[in-house]
Specification:
The protein is α/β, with parallel strands linked by helices and about 200 residues long. It has helices at about 10-20, 40-45, 65-75, 95-100, 120-125, 160-185; strands spanning about 1-5, 30-35, 55, 80-85, 105-110, 130-140, 150-155, 190, 195-199. The strands form 2 sheets. A 7-stranded mixed sheet has the order 3-2-1-4-5-6-7, sandwiched between helices. A two-stranded antiparallel sheet has the order 8-9. The structure holds 5-O-phosphono-beta-D-ribofuranosylamine. 5-O-phosphono-beta-D-ribofuranosylamine binds near residues 13, 87 and 173. It comes from Heliomicrobium gestii (Heliobacterium gestii).
Length: about 200
């Protein structure tokens, strides 16, 4: 699997992927990391490993489709055959969806379809759910709406705040994301309508 990565921030999920590759648990290569933010730690994590790390400033591409066309061109240029959104805080457009059909994966820190979008842990705590978790899913046109590959369940405790809940969930993100990518690398994921069958 030749993975391109889009990330906006800290990049701990990117790091989990790189660690899984090093440990021989994931048969993949990260070929490029692109960020909309110059100060994204994700870029630094990539650069220290000699992975092309590119800051693509949205201000230079007023149209999101132009931005995504450029990103797709850069990713294709280094041979990416799948795309991982690892804490990427923008919606992607058809330019990327069409460049990587059924080959874009996102990690979301809730049990979808509950709590899509932003401020996810706040939503979960305020709603009063006893369990939350994380979801690795294929990306479609919608917001956190594509076919689900893997999920992990995490208890919500009465004294949780956003940070404590986020930390408990993040551990599981770091576990199931490389697992899902490995299934993809092995060609074991088949999308059937809304469902993903693991073969
Ligand atoms: C993670 O919680 C991910 O699920 C969400 O944004 C966060 C990114 O964290 N989409 P990191 O940048 O991978 O550390």
């Amino acid at each position: 699997l030749k993975l391109g990565v889009l990330a906006s921030g800290r990049g701990s999920n990117l790091q989990a992927v790189l660690d899984a590759i090093d440990a021989g648990r994931l048969d993949a290569q990260v070929v490029m990391v692109i960020s909309n933010r110059q100060d994204a730690l994700a870029l630094e994590r990539a650069a220290t490993r000699g992975i092309p790390a590119i800051h693509l400033p949205p201000s230079e591409y007023p149209q999101r489709t132009d931005y995504d066309r450029k990103a797709a061109e850069l990713l294709k240029g280094v041979g990416a055959d799948a795309l991982l959104l690892a804490g990427y805080l923008r919606l992607i457009t058809s330019e990327l969806l069409e460049a990587f059909p059924q080959r874009i994966i996102n990690i979301h820190p809730a049990l979808l379809p509950a709590f899509p979008g932003l401020h996810v842990h706040r939503q979960a705590i305020d709603y009063g759910v006893r369990f939350s978790g994380c979801t690795v899913h294929f990306v479609d046109e919608g917001l956190d709406s594509g076919p689900i590959i893997l999920q992990a369940v995490v208890p919500v405790q009465q004294d949780d705040n956003e940070d404590t809940l986020a930390a408990r969930i993040l551990k599981e993100e770091h576990r199931i994301l490389p697992e899902a990518l490995q299934l993809m690398a092995e060609g074991r994921l088949r999308i059937e309508g809304r469902r993903v069958l693991i073969q």
